[in-house]
């Protein structure tokens, strides 16, 4: 039982707890990778809230909830009949990737500025992704639209593709899209996070709505 699992290694204890839950919980036994996607998205969003507006306890709890999703996926994968892997395989692959992408930490490369670190990172990533034929390969279309726009603008800049400027007046939904993309491009040029900026304003709006409701 989870209560009797060793407490000396928190990650190992969590992995063994997940294993026991998968073995003994009839609901958990029916869950597959696809079934977990909505929960993963929800937990990631709640972690963002904890980072931006929560307490330290909130942050610790939400990190744990997101970790549970990783452990859950790994536990499901460990029981795959054709191509199993477990949380140790996931962790080992992650460690190997991070070592490759930090040659200035684990190798002889030198990086004294963040820009130089990024050069090493991108070079290592390019070597890993040799089969990719487009800078857009690997960009998830499931990202929120503003965040996706900011990501794709960065990719577009790598191949010198510049979106059209926003129209002076809006007469169609397509022109609204152009205007929104232009705003995201401006945010990116300023080093701002368009998605976070809108979230912050929405929180202000939510406070105003609640204040109006209680008045």
UniProtKB/TrEMBL annotation:
<feature type="domain" description="NTP pyrophosphohydrolase MazG-like">
    <location>
        <begin position="33"/>
        <end position="106"/>
    </location>
</feature>
<dbReference type="InterPro" id="IPR011551">
    <property type="entry name" value="NTP_PyrPHydrolase_MazG"/>
</dbReference>
<protein>
    <submittedName>
        <fullName>MazG family protein</fullName>
    </submittedName>
</protein>
<dbReference type="Pfam" id="PF03819">
    <property type="entry name" value="MazG"/>
</dbReference>
<dbReference type="InterPro" id="IPR048015">
    <property type="entry name" value="NTP-PPase_MazG-like_N"/>
</dbReference>
<dbReference type="InterPro" id="IPR004518">
    <property type="entry name" value="MazG-like_dom"/>
</dbReference>
């Amino acid at each position: 039982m989870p209560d009797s699992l060793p407490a000396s290694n928190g990650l190992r204890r969590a992995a063994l707890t997940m294993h026991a839950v998968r073995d003994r919980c009839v609901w958990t036994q029916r869950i597959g990778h696809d079934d977990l996607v909505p929960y993963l998205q929800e937990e990631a969003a709640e972690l963002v809230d904890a980072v931006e507006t929560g307490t330290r306890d909130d942050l610790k709890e939400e990190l744990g909830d997101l970790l549970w999703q990783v452990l859950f996926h790994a536990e499901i994968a460990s029981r795959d009949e054709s191509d199993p892997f477990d949380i140790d395989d996931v962790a080992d692959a992650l460690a190997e990737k991070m070592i490759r992408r930090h040659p200035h930490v684990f190798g002889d490369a030198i990086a004294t500025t963040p820009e130089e670190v990024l050069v090493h990172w991108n070079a290592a990533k390019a070597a890993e992704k040799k089969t990719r034929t487009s800078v857009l390969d690997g960009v998830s279309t499931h990202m929120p639209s503003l965040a996706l726009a900011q990501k794709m603008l960065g990719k577009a800049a790598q191949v010198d593709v510049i979106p059209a400027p926003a129209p002076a007046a809006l007469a169609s939904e397509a022109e609204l899209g152009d205007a929104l993309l232009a705003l995201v491009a401006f945010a990116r040029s300023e080093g701002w996070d368009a998605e976070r900026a809108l979230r912050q304003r929405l929180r202000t709006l939510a406070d105003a709505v609640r204040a109006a409701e209680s008045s």
